[in-house]
Description:
The protein is mainly alpha-helical. Helices cover 72% and strands 1% of the residues. The radius of gyration is 23 Å and the shape is globular. Mean pLDDT is 89; it is low at 316-327.
Amino acid sequence: MNSLTLSLLSFLPILIVAIFLVILKWPARRAMPLAYITVVALSLAVWKIPFNQIAAATVNGIIVALTLLYIIFGAILLLNTLQQSGAMRVIRQAFIDISPDRRIQVILIAWLFGSFIEGSSGFGTPAAVAVPLLVGLGFPAMAAVVSGMIIQSTPVSFGALGTPILVGVGTGLSGDSSVLAYIQQAGVDGASLESVGRPFLELVAQKVAILHAITGTFIPLFVVALMTRFFGANRSFVEGLKVWKFAIFSAFSMTIPYLMAAYIFGPEFPSIFGGMIGLLIVIPAAKAGWFMPDNGEIWDFPDKAEWEPEWTGLVKIQAEQSTSEEKSSMPILMAALPYLFLALLLIITRVPAFGINTFLQSFAFAWSNIFNSTVGTGNIQLLYSPAAIFIVVSASTFLIHKMSIKSYGLAVKDSCQNMLKVSLPLLVTVPMVQVFLNTDGGLAGFAKMPNALAEGVADLAGSSWPIFSTFIGGLGAFIAGSNTVSNMTFSLFQFGVGERIGVDPSWIVALQAVGGAAGNIICVHNVVAASAVVGLLGKEGLVIRKTLAAFVYYALLAGSMGYAIVWSGTRGWLNLGTLFSVLIVVSLVGFISMQLRQDKKGADI
Length: 605
């Protein structure tokens, strides 16, 4: 069977997801079983995968889904605890004091705080923290999820202390003689056949940071423009674009220290430093009114009575409930202390220098060699999981805020009920993903489905591959729900294509990492998990439809810049990639200018 046919067959499960989940707007609990049946049928009939391997991948998917549900429970519990203690109302007022404008609030929480949390923990934690915080502040659940998903791009490559680079790319490229030969020829120390070495990964990380820093400049503006377009009373892009000065300022406040950290400290700290330093710069600027719209207007969502039913989730109801324990006199530092404690614990438990991570990782449920197959070990980390930290912080809040047992019991009860209601979508989504990823070693001898799909695209793309490489990375994350897994799956393939077309393969690997990060914007099980945290049931396809434009922008601009860079030595800088990059940026700037001019003209009339 030729590579194009295999590629088309591999694409079939993804096409099923696109048609039923995104286009026909079916809920994940109905659409994903169809995708699961499709991928199992292809595995058995075409790839000829042993049944025990399919069963093992399915079980492993259930285990992964349980780990996600564990995190979701912890995130909901922390939010409900803060609501019951009255802290959320104080935090809400504190953000209003910084700026009552929802456009400013979403940049502070989703873009800057979310980047910091991503750098600290990764693996979906920002959605579990920032999204419910936005809902607690009065954002519609869908607006919070869409905003939280769009920022899952720039900081992701350096999430969880650089795991997508250090583990994803490092593991993906290790063990290949051609990679070792390239690294040695480039004069980079520390490489062996077993490991590409940290110096090479630092070089890749610097290239990744350059591409992210440029492409990420427009991400805060995407967030606010899409928020006002989809969730504003006037359904207007221009209402979001009016804060373009503040959005670009906030982008640079994060991406400049982010880029510096990549060069000075390596892959572990760009997102942490970018988010933290960005907050320290942007919060005082917002309080001082810098870069705000000239007319001083404040933007807010319409009255809750006018919200469309699809905007709301279970947590919205809880966020509106008043509790007997609300304390108007609670200091903001006391109210925000759980979030400060959360950030501190995430860093302490993730930075290897503290020596705590290894100890916590030893407490885990693991099932290796499931059904005597080659499927990786199913693992639930009981103490290292962010869920354990959420639960510890929730229990600490019970003590610090002097809550009654009754109020804390209500928080626990509501959290359990909500988790059970949202469990089904994940339990049908993740097993499909795991079967798709574990289709190697079949009797037919074909490459596993993700690689077969990529090989077909590479054969068609030829020298234009750099533009497509980011989309393959994004596709890997869309399927797997992880930039790290996408990098592990495709880094060696991307390296090989780079050598095949005669360009610097390290830049192609960097494009893979950037595309894999951007894929988190539309990743199915990340959308399911983020939606589940705020009880947004059955609306996963609608979320992806609203975030798809941001993903296409990110992957296309990064891929175009990559094309310009890798072919600049032989074709000069005036090449197809440069033209595409300039066209994308000019089109965005032109659209913004046109919208603002039309609004000003309308105001003058």
